[in-house]
Inverse folding.
């Protein structure tokens, strides 16, 4: 069975543009969660919410209504879409949270990935959401991938997501696996090195965003699968990184069911990039240091707008302090 699910939460299933400072108070819809209450009610990205239950709507009013509704009764929302004013009724109900979000600074899309899980608002999970995000931002010459505070998840999602940013047949990395050789009487440890290719995930064509200029944003909580994605792309593509040194978890686990019916995880994997270099215990070094994620996003926007910076940093020991 699947091990990774997104968190279940209750609310309207949408979020708002908080990056563009002029829009902080206006409730401009930035994301509508697929299959969530707002999606079912017909709310669309770009709508401006005007009133909620006859009260003037701004981001804070809506979030207060969303979080304080005791009976979880539907709310009446009026919104502006182009030149039209539309009224909808939105339920306040539970749903699986998405893991991929789209925002913009100017004409540069920011794709924020919060985790890598098998099932979210859609059955195809984070990878499915990411493909939809690339489709929604099709035509963008540059894109920011925000992995700040993303501690990882399923390799079956982050690796094909990296492949979507690269040409076909690009080596994504190598895995060194320690396992028990059960073919021998003494059960000695066996070490295997395997290559990871897009075809391992059924991908035989160029990635959908192979021609985009990519800028990554990370911080000290960016770990594991997030680092796998960044290292797979930066080893093959001049994709600069903004933020602080990543966590440095380049190892993985495999799982099996115990006789008691539980699940046991054993660390027996170490990941390397296509050049057989490891970031484990070191982390991924940023090209531009920004300690605040919001500032990092705006710095990434500057770099993405110019679209010419070539990554020069690599993996290095984490600096103290």
């Amino acid at each position: 069975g699947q091990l990774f699910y997104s968190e279940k939460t209750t609310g309207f299933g949408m979020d708002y543009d908080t990056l563009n400072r002029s829009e902080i108070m206006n409730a401009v819809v930035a994301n509508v969660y697929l299959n969530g209450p707002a999606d079912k009610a017909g709310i669309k990205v770009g709508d401006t919410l005007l009133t909620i239950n006859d009260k003037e709507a701004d981001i804070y009013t809506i979030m207060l209504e969303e979080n304080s509704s005791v009976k979880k009764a539907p709310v009446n929302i009026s919104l502006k879409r182009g030149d039209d004013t539309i009224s909808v009724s939105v339920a306040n109900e539970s749903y699986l949270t998405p893991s991929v979000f789209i925002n913009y600074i100017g004409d540069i899309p920011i794709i924020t990935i919060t985790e890598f899980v098998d099932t979210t608002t859609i059955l195809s999970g984070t990878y499915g959401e990411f493909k939809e995000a690339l489709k929604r931002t099709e035509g963008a010459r540059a894109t920011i991938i925000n992995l700040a505070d993303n501690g990882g998840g399923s390799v079956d999602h982050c690796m094909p997501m990296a492949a979507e940013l690269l040409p076909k047949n690009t080596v994504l990395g190598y895995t060194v696996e320690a396992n028990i050789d059960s073919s021998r009487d003494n059960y000695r440890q066996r070490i295997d090195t395997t290559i990871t290719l897009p075809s391992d995930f059924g991908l035989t064509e160029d990635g959908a965003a192979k021609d985009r200029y990519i800028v990554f944003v990370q911080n000290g909580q960016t770990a594991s699968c997030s680092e796998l994605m960044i290292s797979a792309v930066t080893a093959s593509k001049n994709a600069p990184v903004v933020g602080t040194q990543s966590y440095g978890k380049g190892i993985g686990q495999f799982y099996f069911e115990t006789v008691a019916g539980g699940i046991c995880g054993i660390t027996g994997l170490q990941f390397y990039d296509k050049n057989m270099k490891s970031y484990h215990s070191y982390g991924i070094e940023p090209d531009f240091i920004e300690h605040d994620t919001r500032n990092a996003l705006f710095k990434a926007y500057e770099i993405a707008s110019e679209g010419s910076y070539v990554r020069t940093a690599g993996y290095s020991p984490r600096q103290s302090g």
Notes: The first strand starts at residue 8 and ends at 11. The two ends are 42 Å apart (CA to CA).
